[in-house]
Amino acid sequence: MTMNQPYDIVCIGCMVEDLLLSDVPKDFYLRDTIFLQKMESNIGGDAANQAVISAHLGNRTALVSERGADGSGQWLHEFLTREGVDTSMIEVVPGRRTPTSVLAITDGDRHAMILPLSETGYGRPELDYGILDRTKAVSIGSMKMYPRLDEQLPAFFRAAREKGVITAGDVMQKKGPDTLREVYPYLDYFFPNETEGEEVTGESDPEKMAEKLLSWGVGCAVIKLGGKGCYVNDGREAFYVPARRVEAVDTTGAGDNFVAGFLTALVHGLNHRRAAEFATVVSSICVQHIGTTTGVKNLRQVLDVLGWESLAE
Is residue 311 in a domain? Predict the structure, then answer.
């Protein structure tokens, strides 16, 4: 890997329009009508969220995705450009509806309703291997979500490994057989949350999840534990990093913020413990704001919380 790539991080996966409904009462379905405090649109989708936060943290970031030729897709495209994300690899697909999700936020927790992915999902026919000559790291937003994407990952990540590109993946909770066994040996970093980790491994304990993932070939297992922080095991050391104590108003996108933070630390040369500490703060800032990308504004904001002068060992 040369040192003059145009990108630090390339994120691959979906972009979604999120309709955020704030302060939805728990007995919503028992009522005929409710009046909300706030309703707004924001960007969503794992890859898009990661790309925006990566850009906010000062990385040269690109998003590989697709959108419909509709108003929602155009708005998302323009939003990404304004936020500093390279959108040149976003394909506009005539006749395809841009994915939309409705996120009801109740007491800080979010409950999602998503249009069927079979109608709106990522459908690019082939990944562009040329990307691997232009980036330090590549991250797949939600594995196990798009079969046409998943089936390409073993060869794509193998090529990335040969070029010295950092490979990372998150996973969408989805029941059914584990289709990623051929991916794991070429995956440097895997970021499931507790629920996803249990679904993939059959283990309920984070330490056992990580051990099984490493036995399948994952380089470093990073289990996101929500309000409890994270557990990291790279086969050489294993440790927990606790979450920051903050008042959460919306947990939407917290995991995507965490991944963006961890990858940011990696491309700056930090070790795994420091990367986990940095990512945990990025996530804690996210949950104090409504929306996936509204909390983290820039790198200095995160460094100040940590009391660090810069992203250096």
Answer: no
Is residue 312 one of the residues assigned to a domain? no
Intra-chain end-to-end CA distance of the chain, in Å: 21
Domain residues for 33? 9-306
**Structure token digits, residue 182:** 């051929």
Indicate the number of domains in the chain. 1
Tell me if 3 is assigned to some domain: no
Query: How do strand 166-171 and strand 189-190 relate by DSSP bridges?
Result: parallel
| Per-residue pLDDT tens digits for 151-197 | 899 999 999 999 999 999 998 766 656 778 899 999 999 999 999 99
Does residue 2 fall inside a structural domain? Answer: no
> What span, in angstroms and rounded, lies between the C-alpha atoms of 293 and 53?
6
Find the helix or strand (DSSP H, E) in which 76 lies. helix 71-82
The CATH number assigned to the domain holding 88 equals 3.40.1190.20
Question: What does the mean pLDDT of the chain come to?
Answer: 89
The C-alpha atoms of residue 165 and residue 306 are separated, in whole angstroms, by 28
Q: How many CA atoms lie within 13 A of 153 on its CB side?
A: 31
* Entry pTM: 0.90
